[in-house]
DNA sequence: GGCAAACGATACGGTAGCGTAACGAAACGC
DNA sequence: GCGTTTCGTTACGCTACCGTATCGTTTGCC
């Protein structure tokens, strides 16, 4: 696994991972969409549209659109908040967890190859 | 610096970097564009449209479009190959090198914060 | 010279992203 | 109750990407 990465090695790792991801995954998420997805899965819930927007410094429609797209892909789901029905709670899905699990494994694998 | 990354930490690193990149950089390159840019800067030249297309498993118009966009952003340049004027040689630029240098530093900085 | 192959760019119709602005629904304040 | 604020979503016009197919140019081959 990667030990003491230099900036050059870090870019090499990014290169390996993005390249492989482009080749093998037909979904081709935007950088923004990926950031949103990671935020949802790595930060403790609950997640709302407004919260994600302010956290990432983008407008609300950007979040709505990203959730539409990733919802169609099965990576996330949305539910109304029953305690405050103005809010929408973003939920994780099994497919989304699998997607990120595969990404994590890819990074490790490439990182290992990188420093090997 | 990152030592012995677990898959979870790897995703955390990706999260930090994509998130910060989304927030601070207005350019918002596609994952494909980023992969192309990294290929150009990290793999020894010469680079051609056809070569990049086959290397990344995409069609030639994808490369042409990406080079158009990144050319407008000043990240790459193109020149005709004088020895075989059918070819186009993709050249690096100072701005492109700076862009990736900043990305590399960002990864290191976030990786350090990640494991700190 | 002339035909086929290779290269990168372009055209086309379609899809998905963007920012700004406005919208309906729900909660809050008085 | 009723205006105001706060949600998330939708509408609009625009830009940029996609894949497939085709184009013009250049080279290679005979």
UniProtKB/TrEMBL annotation, chains A, B:
InterPro entries: HTH_MarR-typ, MarR/SlyA-like, WH-like_DNA-bd_sf, WH_DNA-bd_sf. SMART domains: HTH_MARR. Residues 1-116 form the HTH marR-type domain. It comes from the Bacteria. One of its GO terms (molecular function) is DNA-binding transcription factor activity. One of its GO terms (biological process) is response to stress. This is MarR family transcriptional regulator.
């Amino acid at each position: 696994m990667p030990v003491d990465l230099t900036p050059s090695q870090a870019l090499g790792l990014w290169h390996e991972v993005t390249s492989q991801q482009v080749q093998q995954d037909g979904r081709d998420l935007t950088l923004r969409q990926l950031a949103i997805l990671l935020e949802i899965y790595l930060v403790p819930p609950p997640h709302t549209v407004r919260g994600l927007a302010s956290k990432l410094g983008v407008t609300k429609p950007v979040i709505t659109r990203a959730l539409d797209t990733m919802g169609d892909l099965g990576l996330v789901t949305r539910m109304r908040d029953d305690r405050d029905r103005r809010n929408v709670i973003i939920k994780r899905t099994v497919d989304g967890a699998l997607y990120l699990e595969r990404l994590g494994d890819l990074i490790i694998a490439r990182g290992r190859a990188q420093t090997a």
